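Loading example: each entry is read as two labelled lines plus one structure line.
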Amino acid sequence: MTPLQTCLLISALLFSVGFAGAVTRRHAILVLIGIELMLNAANLNLIAFWRFGAHPESLNGFIFALFSMALAAAEAAVGLALVIAIYRHKKTSNLDEMKELKG
Amino acid sequence: MSPFFIITAVVTLFGAVLAMSLRNLVHCALAMAIAFAGVAALFLQLGAEFVGFAQILIYIGAIAILIVFAILLTRSGESPDKSVLTSGWWAGIAVTAMVFTILGWAVLSSSAVPKELPAAPAATVKNVGDLLMTKFVLPLEIVALVLTAAMIGAVLIALKEDNKDNAGGQP
Protein backbone atom coordinates (compact mmCIF):
# COMPACT_ATOMS: atom_id res chain seq x y z
CA MET A 1 0.00 0.00 0.00
CA THR A 2 1.44 3.35 -1.02
CA PRO A 3 1.57 6.28 1.45
CA LEU A 4 -1.19 8.05 -0.48
CA GLN A 5 -3.49 5.06 -0.08
CA THR A 6 -2.73 4.89 3.64
CA CYS A 7 -3.69 8.56 4.05
CA LEU A 8 -6.84 8.10 1.97
CA LEU A 9 -7.91 5.06 4.00
CA ILE A 10 -7.35 6.92 7.28
CA SER A 11 -9.44 9.82 6.05
CA ALA A 12 -12.14 7.45 4.75
CA LEU A 13 -12.33 5.91 8.24
CA LEU A 14 -12.50 9.36 9.86
CA PHE A 15 -15.25 10.39 7.43
CA SER A 16 -17.24 7.22 8.15
CA VAL A 17 -17.00 7.74 11.91
CA GLY A 18 -18.17 11.35 11.57
CA PHE A 19 -20.96 10.34 9.21
CA ALA A 20 -22.17 7.56 11.51
CA GLY A 21 -22.29 9.99 14.43
CA ALA A 22 -24.06 12.68 12.40
CA VAL A 23 -26.84 10.35 11.23
CA THR A 24 -27.35 8.27 14.38
CA ARG A 25 -26.96 10.61 17.35
CA ARG A 26 -29.99 12.40 18.72
CA HIS A 27 -28.40 15.62 20.00
CA ALA A 28 -28.05 18.53 17.57
CA ILE A 29 -24.58 19.54 18.80
CA LEU A 30 -23.25 16.02 18.21
CA VAL A 31 -24.45 16.22 14.62
CA LEU A 32 -22.35 19.37 14.25
CA ILE A 33 -19.33 17.59 15.77
CA GLY A 34 -19.81 14.80 13.23
CA ILE A 35 -19.88 17.33 10.40
CA GLU A 36 -16.65 18.87 11.71
CA LEU A 37 -15.02 15.43 11.71
CA MET A 38 -16.13 14.88 8.12
CA LEU A 39 -14.67 18.26 7.08
CA ASN A 40 -11.41 17.30 8.80
CA ALA A 41 -11.32 14.07 6.81
CA ALA A 42 -11.79 16.05 3.59
CA ASN A 43 -8.94 18.36 4.60
CA LEU A 44 -6.72 15.34 5.26
CA ASN A 45 -7.54 14.14 1.74
CA LEU A 46 -6.62 17.50 0.23
CA ILE A 47 -3.29 17.61 2.07
CA ALA A 48 -2.50 13.99 1.13
CA PHE A 49 -3.22 14.64 -2.56
CA TRP A 50 -1.10 17.80 -2.41
CA ARG A 51 1.82 15.98 -0.76
CA PHE A 52 1.80 12.85 -2.93
CA GLY A 53 0.27 14.30 -6.10
CA ALA A 54 1.85 15.33 -9.38
CA HIS A 55 2.75 19.01 -8.79
CA PRO A 56 3.23 19.66 -5.08
CA GLU A 57 5.27 22.80 -5.74
CA SER A 58 2.19 24.70 -6.94
CA LEU A 59 0.63 24.51 -3.41
CA ASN A 60 -2.91 24.32 -4.79
CA GLY A 61 -4.19 21.60 -2.44
CA PHE A 62 -2.51 23.32 0.47
CA ILE A 63 -4.35 26.62 -0.17
CA PHE A 64 -7.58 24.69 -0.78
CA ALA A 65 -7.27 23.12 2.68
CA LEU A 66 -6.76 26.56 4.24
CA PHE A 67 -9.90 27.94 2.58
CA SER A 68 -11.97 24.91 3.54
CA MET A 69 -10.85 25.42 7.14
CA ALA A 70 -12.08 29.03 7.09
CA LEU A 71 -15.43 27.89 5.69
CA ALA A 72 -15.65 25.18 8.38
CA ALA A 73 -15.23 27.87 11.03
CA ALA A 74 -18.07 29.91 9.49
CA GLU A 75 -20.25 26.79 9.30
CA ALA A 76 -19.62 25.95 12.96
CA ALA A 77 -20.52 29.49 14.10
CA VAL A 78 -23.81 29.57 12.17
CA GLY A 79 -24.72 25.99 13.10
CA LEU A 80 -24.21 26.53 16.83
CA ALA A 81 -26.17 29.81 16.66
CA LEU A 82 -29.03 27.85 15.08
CA VAL A 83 -28.87 25.20 17.83
CA ILE A 84 -28.99 27.90 20.52
CA ALA A 85 -31.90 29.70 18.81
CA ILE A 86 -33.88 26.46 18.49
CA TYR A 87 -33.15 25.60 22.11
CA ARG A 88 -34.42 29.01 23.22
CA HIS A 89 -37.58 28.55 21.17
CA LYS A 90 -38.43 24.92 21.98
CA LYS A 91 -36.38 24.21 25.15
CA THR A 92 -34.90 21.09 23.62
CA SER A 93 -31.99 20.14 21.39
CA ASN A 94 -33.29 16.65 20.68
CA LEU A 95 -33.52 16.16 16.92
CA ASP A 96 -36.39 13.65 17.17
CA GLU A 97 -38.64 16.35 18.62
CA MET A 98 -38.07 18.84 15.78
CA LYS A 99 -40.72 17.76 13.30
CA GLU A 100 -42.69 20.91 12.44
CA LEU A 101 -41.94 20.48 8.74
CA LYS A 102 -42.99 16.82 8.67
CA GLY A 103 -45.86 16.27 6.25
CA MET B 1 4.68 5.33 6.25
CA SER B 2 6.51 5.62 9.54
CA PRO B 3 5.15 3.80 12.62
CA PHE B 4 4.64 7.18 14.29
CA PHE B 5 2.24 8.19 11.51
CA ILE B 6 0.19 5.03 12.07
CA ILE B 7 0.12 5.60 15.85
CA THR B 8 -1.08 9.18 15.32
CA ALA B 9 -3.78 7.95 12.96
CA VAL B 10 -4.94 5.34 15.49
CA VAL B 11 -5.13 7.99 18.24
CA THR B 12 -7.09 10.28 15.91
CA LEU B 13 -9.58 7.59 15.00
CA PHE B 14 -9.91 6.54 18.64
CA GLY B 15 -10.74 10.15 19.60
CA ALA B 16 -13.27 10.37 16.78
CA VAL B 17 -14.99 7.13 17.81
CA LEU B 18 -15.11 8.28 21.44
CA ALA B 19 -16.52 11.67 20.39
CA MET B 20 -19.32 9.95 18.53
CA SER B 21 -20.14 7.28 21.12
CA LEU B 22 -19.83 8.77 24.62
CA ARG B 23 -23.04 9.69 26.43
CA ASN B 24 -21.93 12.88 28.19
CA LEU B 25 -21.65 15.79 25.75
CA VAL B 26 -18.75 17.49 27.55
CA HIS B 27 -16.74 14.26 27.28
CA CYS B 28 -17.67 14.15 23.59
CA ALA B 29 -16.24 17.66 23.11
CA LEU B 30 -12.99 16.64 24.84
CA ALA B 31 -12.65 13.53 22.66
CA MET B 32 -13.32 15.71 19.62
CA ALA B 33 -10.42 17.97 20.65
CA ILE B 34 -8.20 14.85 20.79
CA ALA B 35 -9.29 13.91 17.27
CA PHE B 36 -8.57 17.45 16.00
CA ALA B 37 -5.12 17.42 17.61
CA GLY B 38 -4.43 14.06 15.95
CA VAL B 39 -5.40 15.46 12.55
CA ALA B 40 -3.10 18.43 13.20
CA ALA B 41 -0.24 16.01 13.97
CA LEU B 42 -0.98 14.15 10.71
CA PHE B 43 -0.80 17.47 8.82
CA LEU B 44 2.54 18.26 10.44
CA GLN B 45 3.94 14.85 9.47
CA LEU B 46 2.76 15.30 5.89
CA GLY B 47 4.86 18.47 5.61
CA ALA B 48 1.97 20.96 5.83
CA GLU B 49 3.22 22.91 8.84
CA PHE B 50 1.12 26.02 8.24
CA VAL B 51 -2.12 24.07 7.89
CA GLY B 52 -1.23 22.02 10.97
CA PHE B 53 -0.75 25.06 13.17
CA ALA B 54 -3.85 26.72 11.68
CA GLN B 55 -5.75 23.53 12.55
CA ILE B 56 -4.58 23.76 16.17
CA LEU B 57 -5.54 27.44 16.38
CA ILE B 58 -8.90 27.23 14.60
CA TYR B 59 -10.23 23.83 15.62
CA ILE B 60 -8.84 23.27 19.11
CA GLY B 61 -8.70 26.95 19.98
CA ALA B 62 -11.95 28.24 18.51
CA ILE B 63 -14.38 25.53 17.42
CA ALA B 64 -13.92 23.28 20.48
CA ILE B 65 -14.48 26.25 22.80
CA LEU B 66 -17.52 27.30 20.74
CA ILE B 67 -18.99 23.81 21.02
CA VAL B 68 -18.41 23.72 24.79
CA PHE B 69 -20.16 27.11 25.06
CA ALA B 70 -23.11 25.79 23.04
CA ILE B 71 -23.32 22.66 25.23
CA LEU B 72 -23.42 24.77 28.38
CA LEU B 73 -25.86 27.34 26.92
CA THR B 74 -28.32 24.60 25.97
CA ARG B 75 -27.95 22.99 29.42
CA SER B 76 -27.08 19.58 28.01
CA GLY B 77 -23.93 18.99 30.04
CA GLU B 78 -25.21 16.00 31.99
CA SER B 79 -25.79 12.54 30.59
CA PRO B 80 -29.33 11.87 29.33
CA ASP B 81 -31.42 9.10 30.86
CA LYS B 82 -32.99 8.04 27.58
CA SER B 83 -31.30 6.59 24.52
CA VAL B 84 -28.81 8.86 22.77
CA LEU B 85 -29.50 7.38 19.33
CA THR B 86 -32.21 8.45 16.91
CA SER B 87 -35.10 6.14 16.17
CA GLY B 88 -33.73 5.05 12.79
CA TRP B 89 -30.11 4.54 13.82
CA TRP B 90 -29.74 1.10 12.20
CA ALA B 91 -30.41 2.65 8.76
CA GLY B 92 -27.70 5.22 9.45
CA ILE B 93 -25.23 2.47 10.36
CA ALA B 94 -26.11 0.58 7.18
CA VAL B 95 -25.57 3.67 5.00
CA THR B 96 -22.27 4.35 6.79
CA ALA B 97 -21.07 0.80 6.14
CA MET B 98 -21.95 1.15 2.47
CA VAL B 99 -20.17 4.51 2.20
CA PHE B 100 -17.01 3.15 3.81
CA THR B 101 -17.06 0.01 1.66
CA ILE B 102 -17.30 2.06 -1.53
CA LEU B 103 -14.63 4.54 -0.41
CA GLY B 104 -12.22 1.77 0.63
CA TRP B 105 -12.81 -0.19 -2.56
CA ALA B 106 -12.21 2.94 -4.67
CA VAL B 107 -9.00 3.81 -2.81
CA LEU B 108 -7.55 0.30 -2.92
CA SER B 109 -8.44 -0.50 -6.53
CA SER B 110 -7.63 2.85 -8.10
CA SER B 111 -4.90 2.93 -10.74
CA ALA B 112 -4.44 6.70 -10.47
CA VAL B 113 -2.24 6.38 -7.38
CA PRO B 114 1.40 7.38 -8.04
CA LYS B 115 3.87 4.65 -7.14
CA GLU B 116 6.96 6.69 -6.30
CA LEU B 117 7.17 9.27 -3.54
CA PRO B 118 7.75 12.82 -4.85
CA ALA B 119 10.23 15.10 -3.14
CA ALA B 120 8.86 17.05 -0.20
CA PRO B 121 7.68 20.44 -1.50
CA ALA B 122 8.62 23.66 0.23
CA ALA B 123 5.45 25.04 1.83
CA THR B 124 7.05 27.83 3.79
CA VAL B 125 4.94 30.62 5.22
CA LYS B 126 6.59 33.00 2.75
CA ASN B 127 5.46 30.93 -0.24
CA VAL B 128 1.94 30.59 1.15
CA GLY B 129 1.69 34.32 1.85
CA ASP B 130 2.99 35.16 -1.64
CA LEU B 131 0.37 32.91 -3.25
CA LEU B 132 -2.45 34.23 -1.04
CA MET B 133 -1.60 37.80 -2.01
CA THR B 134 -1.10 37.19 -5.76
CA LYS B 135 -2.75 34.16 -7.36
CA PHE B 136 -5.43 33.52 -4.71
CA VAL B 137 -6.23 37.09 -3.69
CA LEU B 138 -9.81 36.96 -5.04
CA PRO B 139 -10.74 33.75 -3.13
CA LEU B 140 -9.13 35.27 -0.05
CA GLU B 141 -11.36 38.35 -0.28
CA ILE B 142 -14.44 36.19 -0.88
CA VAL B 143 -13.62 34.08 2.18
CA ALA B 144 -13.25 37.27 4.21
CA LEU B 145 -16.72 38.35 3.01
CA VAL B 146 -18.19 34.92 3.85
CA LEU B 147 -16.70 35.01 7.34
CA THR B 148 -18.08 38.50 7.97
CA ALA B 149 -21.53 37.48 6.74
CA ALA B 150 -21.44 34.31 8.85
CA MET B 151 -20.45 36.25 11.94
CA ILE B 152 -23.25 38.82 11.49
CA GLY B 153 -25.72 36.03 10.71
CA ALA B 154 -24.72 34.01 13.77
CA VAL B 155 -25.15 37.05 16.02
CA LEU B 156 -28.56 37.84 14.48
CA ILE B 157 -29.79 34.26 14.78
CA ALA B 158 -28.69 33.85 18.38
CA LEU B 159 -29.88 37.32 19.40
CA LYS B 160 -32.54 37.36 22.10
CA GLU B 161 -35.99 37.95 20.64
CA ASP B 162 -38.01 40.94 21.79
CA ASN B 163 -40.98 40.40 24.05
CA LYS B 164 -43.30 42.26 21.72
CA ASP B 165 -43.06 39.33 19.30
CA ASN B 166 -44.59 37.08 21.93
CA ALA B 167 -47.51 39.48 22.49
CA GLY B 168 -48.66 39.03 18.87
CA GLY B 169 -50.23 35.64 19.42
CA GLN B 170 -46.99 33.64 19.26
CA PRO B 171 -47.11 30.69 21.67
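The CA atoms of residues 33 and 60 of chain B lie 6 Å apart.
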